[in-house]
Write a structure and sequence with these properties.
globular; single chain; alpha+beta; 192 residues; Multidrug-efflux Transporter 1 Regulator Bmrr, Chain A
Length: 192
């Protein structure tokens, strides 16, 4: 289990650098190694309701995720605009089976929640995700420092005896630019 913790912490740090059951606890704290410009909230374990979303899928590695995201989001927004589809929620990334191996490919879904009756235009996939049991944490700050939030979340979930499922989601609740201290991201790590 300790090796798994180290691998997952490494995965999250590399991933981010390159690119309701718990009681709510008050306040936030500075993200480790990032005082003043980023904050992490407390972990909560929740079962979030299902969501229907349109997405594009890409195969990335930890080394290629950073350069892949920006052009993919630009393309996705244009596809939605051309199809006259309004997102019903914030930008979301869904990671499937990412590992600590920086050269191993995994699937990254980049998408937006939509109403259930929306038809997927050519080039996009419509998915109805079931309710999601996950450990969650709010993060605010620059994208490059999200690794500290992931590291804290994994430390907390392992400390509670929870096991990750291999699916992670990021919801970009507020985004100015990748360096902004004002960005707000809801991080979700699926747990068994």
């Amino acid at each position: 289990m300790k090796r798994g913790k180290r691998l997952l912490a490494m995965l999250i740090m590399v991933l981010v650098a390159s690119a309701v059951q718990a009681q709510p606890k008050p306040a936030t704290k500075p993200a480790a190694g990032a005082p003043g410009d980023s904050m992490v909230g407390e972990m909560r374990v929740e079962t979030l309701k299902g969501v229907t979303y349109l997405h594009m899928d890409t195969q990335v590695t930890l080394m290629t995720i950073g350069p892949t995201v920006e052009p993919a989001v630009t393309k996705l927004l244009k596809m939605l605009s051309d199809a006259h589809i309004a997102p019903a929620g914030p930008l979301m990334f869904v990671y499937h089976n990412a590992t600590a191996n920086p050269n191993k490919k995994f699937t990254l879904e980049i998408g937006f929640p939509v109403k259930e009756d929306v038809e997927a235009p050519a080039g996009l996939t419509k998915t109805k995700a079931e309710p999601f049991k996950c450990a969650t944490m709010l993060y605010s700050g620059p994208v490059a420092k999200m690794g500290a939030a992931y590291q804290q979340l994994y430390t907390d979930l392992f400390g509670e005896g929870l096991a990750p499922t291999g699916v992670m989601r990021d919801y970009y609740l507020y985004f100015e630019d990748k360096e902004s201290a004002n960005n707000v991201v809801l991080i979700q790590v699926g747990v068994q």
